[in-house]
Amino acid sequence: MGMKNKISTSAPGRICLFGEHQDNLKLPVIPVAISKRVNIQAEIINNSNIKIHLQNTNSSEEFNITDNITYDKDKDYFKSSINVLKRLNYEFTKGLDVNVSGYIPIHSKLSSSASLVVAWIKLLTKLNGIDLSPNEIAKLAYRAEMLEFNEPGGKMAHYTTALGGVMFLDFEPQVKIERLSTNLGTFVIGNSGQPKDTKAILANVKIHAEYIANKIKFIDSNFSFRNTALEEFNKYRKYFPRNDFNLLLAAKRNYNITMQAKELFTDEKFYSQKEIGKLLNKEQQILREELNVSTNKINRMIDASLNAGAYGAKINDSSSGCMFAYAPENPEEVAESLRKMGCKAFIVKPDEGVMIHDDSYSLIAS
What we know:
- This protein has about 375 residues and is of the alpha+beta class.
- It has helices at about 75-85, 110-125, 135-145, 155-165, 200-220, 240-265, 275-290, 295-305, 330-340, and strands spanning about 5-20, 30-45, 50-55, 60-65, 95-100, 165-170, 175-180, 185-190, 310-315, 320-325, 345-350, 355.
- The strands form three sheets. It has a six-stranded mixed sheet with strand order 4-3-5-2-1-12. The chain has a four-stranded antiparallel sheet with strand order 9-10-8-11. Strands 6-7 form a two-stranded antiparallel sheet.
- A hairpin with a 5-residue loop joins strand 6 and strand 7.
- Helix 6 (about 240-265) packs antiparallel against helix 7 (about 275-290).
């Protein structure tokens, strides 16, 4: 059978079960890849142009792969990915006709951008004859999406979409991944239709978190979010404005919840879907009451989903207009309760990471 000149890849979206924005403090998180994916199909063409067709937005863009590639806009991820790879001595001489489709709602903070970059880098490296591990794909995607544009945000999305499944992801002293093998079941994603200023919120959270972490280390070199007990935090209250101190307490409480969740996931004797739901509700209470990052509509959506039988629910990423409900038993009823409020709702489950769908192709650099 001859070699084809087409290849397709896909990568999942993700939600953060536990540890919202904790990766900015290099604290652990528990994310899960979900069954909404970005799909990229590419065909090698006989020139050096990259032609990209974005089906969801009915738009397109084109650039020459051999030129000195400059960015024409923020989040110019197709170009930034190629630039990152070129600096690592990847070679590109042949063009591509690319079609991108996705089932991850834009601005929902389900990591549509990370999924796009992960799938794109997987495609480009495979066409270059390199079969990178998911970990390596995640690192490159983080560079292409975040570092290339000096964007705030952590690495959680890139590792989750690259590796897939449910994981305990830690960042200190280096990235550590622990797979969590469990039957989580279904979730319901609800979109309020009220987008928030994601970049500004992320930047504000990250800047304040880093400022507080650095200041408290200066005050007490022995301080540790991980090891300092919550009851010891009051001795630092006098050094911070109230809002900053509340952020400090919230970070610690979220860390404790994340570690409790990990214990549930890793101990078959105590694992319970309902207990996971209770912990989700505890984290949402912190996000709503202590960090003030939830909205009235999101709060009503959460109440509706819980009344419809969800075990737990929380805002998604705290900088989006979306929430998710953990509904392993009656997801249709939960989704319908959100639709009755005029919200879009869809059911998802844990999914695999980035993948190649057609492994028969000729090399882009040959």
